[in-house]
Amino acid sequence: MTKKKNAVDAAALPLNSIIDGDCIEVMNSLPEGSVDLIFADPPYNLQLKGDLHRPDNSKVDAVDNDWDQFDSFRVYDEFTHAWLKAARRILKPDGAIWVIGSYHNVFRMGAELQNQGFWILNDVVWRKSNPMPNFRGKRFTNAHETLIWASKEEKSKPTFNYEALKALNEGTQMRSDWMLPICTGHERLKNDAGEKAHPTQKPESLLHRVLLGTTNPGDVVLDPFFGTGTTGAVAKMLGRDYIGIEREAEYRAVAEKRLKKVRKFDGEALQVTQSKRAEPRVPFGQVVERGMLRPGEELWSMNGRHKAKVRADGTLIAADSKGSIHQVGAACENAPSCNGWTYWHFRRDGKKVPIDLLRQQIRSEMHAN
Fold this sequence. Notes:
The protein is α/β, with parallel strands linked by helices. The protein contains 12 helices and 14 strands.
């Protein structure tokens, strides 16, 4: 996979490091158009009113940290406006952003994304397979969070590894509802007191899916609310460069310790299934001029009802039509379009073989060279 245009010299970026500071100030100090992807898990602004207890009267370890406290919706909106503006400036022209939140803040972020010119591509519902119960019994169990995936602008062409996500999902299109567990057991990081190191630590499975699907090896991924470093850990494993911003010393210490233990996958393991659209273009005429099919040789439709002859210039001629492999296939089926590579077959040793096999042979030779 080739690197995208408008790349910024990597030496100008604090790659694979955690920066101590306010995320807005730090992002404003970075070069414009220097980051491929931003994953942001900002404060939720939960507006908690008092402590929450379980039925046995034990206290729930909820998100009541100072960093999640805002005086009003107006103050939170001003904060959201400022950090998204800083984030958009440092994205490359074809860059993208993921934001994640609960019902408390995700709709406010969605509106601000659109106000600033981001182009929303998808919202994704992360369905938690093991959510925390609603102890008071006055509302539905809050069993999901929402992610928004947006490009820098409408005309941007962000990375989307469709075939890789399809392979991850056992050959089925990846849907926009993801059933994944929250952090528990060995994945839940603890501080020196044996308590949760961070109240909203995200599972690595969530970041694996995000980064596998919307970045490539060598891309720069920035997380302005780095916390205990899940984004950095997964980025490092997958061969992406990361930049973390975190103002809380306690979280930085946990993240640095965590990242030292992470190993990058080897080169072969980093490769993913590529979209056929990303493969080099091979004209059908190249198959003919290389003698893989000869002029006058017959091709058959996949259903066996139609046949056509190969011509010296790489076109086909059938009973009532002539033209490219796609045009003649469409004419035979009386269809508006046709993928001639999968439609037409040739015969070898009494068996029908799709001509796409010949295209793949040429492509494999291109990759080898």
